[in-house]
Amino acid sequence: GAVVSQHPSWVICKSGTSVKIECRSLDFQATTMFWYRQFPKQSLMLMATSNEGSKATYEQGVEKDKFLINHASLTLSTLTVTSAHPEDSSFYICSARLAGTSPPGETQYFGPGTRLLVL
Amino acid sequence: EDKVVQSPLSLVVHEGDTVTLNCSYEVTNFRSLLWYKQEKKAPTFLFMLTSSGIEKKSGRLSSILDKKELFSILNITATQTGDSAIYLCAVHLLHNAGGTSYGKLTFGQGTILTVHP
Predict the structure, then answer these.
(1) Interface check B32 vs A, CB under 8 A
(2) How far is Cα B100 from Cα A70, in angstroms, rounded to an integer?
(3) How far, CA to CA in Å, does B21 sit from each of A7, A89, B8, B42, B50?
(4) Which of A31, B27, B50, B106 is within CB 3.0–4.6 Å of A99 for a Cys-Cys bond?
(5) Does the beta carbon of A106 lie under 8 angstroms from any beta carbon of chain B?
């Protein structure tokens, strides 16, 4: 149980286009989902915290108008990279926290990630 | 600013060796410290530590937290090639922003472990 999926697993797009990435909790409800970005051989950087039914909370330095996050249901959050540029090429990972729990760890589950390449 | 620092950044050993990975932190509103293993895709959870001095163990892996000195170590004994991965340390902290509190994970840079046969 506690599986998180992401779609697509990889995407190549042209500079200037927008790309939407989906994060789904398949067998549990997640009131909170997190979006991370990871550059090669670097660690995960939290981009934003997404709560179902409310606006996402963005980390300092992350442009909210460029990285649009929608968390419309307890099982789905989406990240849209608008007007993508080559420097947005990265590995994007989401995680979902099981509803009703507070600390992470066993109760926060990571998706498999989406590799984005902007040409 | 909250900081999590891991060392070494990379490590190359041979099968059977024992390795110790370090994680130090300076954060406000500490809740817990977590270790993850990342191979090609998403990180997989290893341990969550909340109390000082209590060792957590799973097979050949063990970890301990020192909340006074603000660090944790992850030990892997009798390493195998399948242990090759990036090991990530993360601190769960309570973050206050704009009148709202929420928990978030701050990750260290990771340690790239390579185990040769």
Answers:
(1) yes
(2) 19
(3) 33, 30, 7, 20, 18
(4) A31
(5) yes
